[in-house]
TrEMBL record:
The lineage of its organism: Bacteria, Pseudomonadati, Pseudomonadota, Alphaproteobacteria, Acetobacterales. It comes from Falsiroseomonas tokyonensis. SMART domains: CobW_C. PANTHER family: COBW DOMAIN-CONTAINING PROTEIN, COBW-RELATED. Pfam families: cobW, CobW_C. Residues 239-334 form the CobW C-terminal domain. This is CobW family GTP-binding protein.
Length: 346
């Protein structure tokens, strides 16, 4: 063994494009033999199904937010990576993709302070994605987003092609004030050279803003109580996850009409929406993504994820919006679409 395995933490607020970036990176030779650990907020995980693995494994950490669930989840997952390496599987590096609601400080503390981990793994760096379209408002409203930017070794700006250059420049200026050390790198559709993001470490709090070392130091688990009383909405009691699962193929007309209505009327309350869909008349799965008022065009995947049942799954991260409003609204639009279809075939 040549030394500890480098670990890159990939973070960024909801909808910034972490999975898109990860997919693009994993296709590059520099990312060969990468083990990927994915953490999501909510009862149903989707991102691990949307990451296109070329080799190695993808591990979905327990549902909930990695920064406040049992941090043993991360330790157990890394132990599993180490065991696979000892069994002969080549592991060149690890990427930990955090949920968009994660305060990164507890994750970094775990990776830096656990003596047993330190002999096997080294925190190589933190890559933080910032959405150029919503980044300024997110930094205003979400303290987690501020910390994600402040702790970064590399800041990647996504969706710069969607925004006026002057607005992007203002966001860059604010990010430099938060973190004058980290290079700010643009990525369009997740495309960026992996070498520009890797080998940034080992992680060094001394070159960050003074608050960073304080945050990480304060993130040490406080006794046994911390590990077994997790509040999935501890970040903000106004934020809730809604996870919906459908065994029958869905009508796209009803779903699309409802999504348009939701974006127009309550878009600000939809921090994140993502779905893996089984649609009527479609053989292949369809992926949809949305952030507040911006819903991206659907994307067809080549095939259903291996070993996964063919069904639709939708996940929403909502702020100050009753999940029942979303659930009942969607049901009404789907029922109306089915009724219209029945009338058309009668």
């Amino acid at each position: 063994m040549s030394g500890p395995i480098p670990v890159t933490v990939l973070t960024g607020f909801l909808g910034a494009g972490k999975t898109t970036l990860l997919n693009a990176l994993l296709k590059q030779p520099a990312m060969a033999h990468t083990a990927v650990l994915i953490n999501e907020f909510g009862e149903i995980g989707l991102d691990h199904l949307l990451v296109e693995r070329l080799d190695g494994d993808t591990v979905l950490l327990n549902a909930g937010c990695l920064c406040c669930t049992i941090r043993g989840d991360l330790l157990t997952a890394l132990d599993g990576v180490w065991d696979r390496m000892l069994a002969g599987q080549k592991v060149a590096r690890v990427v930990v993709e955090t949920t968009g609601l994660a305060d990164p400080a507890p994750i970094l503390h775990t990776l830096m302070a656990d003596l047993r981990l330190a002999r096997r793994f080294v925190l190589d760096g933190v890559v933080t994605l910032v959405d150029a379209a919503t980044g300024m408002a997110t930094l205003d409203a979400q303290p987690e987003a501020l910390r994600q930017a402040a702790v970064a070794d590399r800041i990647v700006l996504s969706k710069t092609d969607l925004m006026p250059p002057a607005q992007v420049a203002l966001l860059e200026e604010r990010l430099r004030a938060l973190n004058p050390i980290a290079p700010i790198l643009p990525a369009v559709a997740g495309e960026i050279e992996a070498a520009r993001l890797l080998d940034a470490g080992p992680y060094d709090t001394s070159v960050k803003a003074p608050d960073v070392a304080t945050w990480i130091g304060a993130a040490a688990p406080q006794g046994h109580h911390h590990h077994h009383h997790h509040d999935p909405n501890r970040h903000d009691g106004r934020i809730q996850a809604l996870c919906l699962d459908f065994d029958r193929p869905l009508p796209w007309t009803g779903l699309a009409s409802w999504l348009e209505m939701l974006a127009m009327t309550r878009g600000a309350a939809v921090l994140r929406m993502k779905g893996l869909l089984d649609l009527q008349g479609e053989d292949r799965p369809v992926v949809i993504h949305g952030v507040q008022h911006l819903f991206h065009p659907p994307i067809r995947l080549d095939a259903w994820p291996e070993g996964e049942p063919r069904r639709s799954r939708l996940v929403f991260i909502l702020r100050e919006l009753d999940p029942d409003v979303v659930r009942k609204g969607l049901a009404a639009f789907l029922d109306a679409a089915e009724a219209e279809k029945a009338l058309g075939t009668a």
